[in-house]
Amino acid sequence: MTDNHQEASRLHKQAASDHEDAAKNHTKAAQCHDKNQASEAKDHSKSAMNCCDTAQKTSTSACGCSANT
């Protein structure tokens, strides 16, 4: 596998992991809302947003790298 293919693979795996982290925080936020735990829900929502931002950047890099293979 060429270096560019390896980098694309690495970036896609990282993007998937970042999206999974965001999903976990979204789920935790929803569970907190279900339990009327507003403060905890807010904390998990902020974490989800941060994870989403990271995931979006990693996804853009991954897809850009794939486009150049």
Strand content: under 5%
Structural class: mainly alpha
> Low-confidence parts lasting 5 or more residues at pLDDT below 50?
none
Q: What's the overall average pLDDT, rounded?
A: 95
Secondary structure: helix percent = over 70%
- Radius of gyration from CA coordinates: 15 Å
* E-strand count: 0
Quick tags:
69 residues; mainly alpha; 0% strand
Fold topology:
Elements: H1 3-34, H2 38-67
Helix pairs in contact: 1-2
3D structure, described in words:
It is built from two helices and no strands. By secondary structure, the protein is mostly helical. Helix 1 (3-34) packs antiparallel against helix 2. The longest helix is centred in the N-terminal third of the chain and has 32 residues, at 3-34.
Outline of this structure?
This protein is 90% helix and 0% strand.
